[in-house]
């Protein structure tokens, strides 16, 4: 009987290899203890790249040598620290990512924007820690029938499982922002695996789902980290709009948040907002309604075609 059951399970694993697959589940459920840290252990002073200017003159660019998508002479992938950046444009035009970066991340099955031929946009929220505003954000998304993506850290899952459960129950996507929020190029391959798969393992044990999308802490990555995470079956989701909304002591009001988001809407926009901001939570309902008045609709990132190579 047990032999027959083993054969059935093995056959199912082979048949599902192209989907969620048993191999991914087994890898993320290795019998190792995962300890989630407290929130005060994380460095959240800088969440994303500061290069978010609407003035192209201030934009930092990389040349081709700095963004090599080929292996180095020693056969290793480049670990040069890259910081995701975009240059905003007026009149709801598509912003520019740093030269060479769209091609680089595409090579490793990652993306930062949706279909620019469609007036469809996507809301994503980074959750390094809880500041009392996520419940209101979830209320607004529920009332407006909008799906969001919430990128959580280890401490967030440990201390706010009730909010994460609500995200799952209400049909949102929960993404992986690592256990400890390190800069990925600073840590070795095995540690990158532990940061993402350790959090995925705990999430799977609690909710029976895996975390497919990841977001690099501080917006810092390298070709090496892209390759490592791709090998783990993970998809890096960057963004085409963000602003400096992660500071605890910089409150500028709902009007500021509403206006900066509205003037930067564009087709296929992946919008990054930090849920620690009262400005964002207070403005979110107006942002959703205002975007719809302009003809935009809110989509699911699961419907964005993920590149499989650099062609």
Features:
311 residues, alpha/beta, TIM Barrel, five-stranded parallel beta sheet, globular, disordered N terminus
What does this entry look like structurally?
- 34% of the residues lie in helices and 12% in strands.
- It has helices at residues 2-15, 22-28, 101-107, 134-144, 154-159, 161-169, 189-207, 223-231, 254-262, 278-293; strands spanning 82-83, 86-87, 96-97, 120-127, 148-152, 173-176, 213-214, 220-221, 235-236, 270-274, 297-298.
- Strands 4, 5, 6, 10 and 11 form a 5-stranded parallel sheet that branches.
- The chain has 2 domains: 1-28; 91-311, Glycoside hydrolase/deacetylase (TIM Barrel, Alpha-Beta Barrel), CATH 3.20.20.370.
- The chain has 10 helices and 11 strands.
- By secondary structure, the chain is of the alpha/beta class.
- 41% of the residues are buried.
- α7 crosses α8 (223-231).
- The longest helix has 19 residues, at 189-207.
- The chain starts with a helix and ends in a 13-residue tail after the last strand.
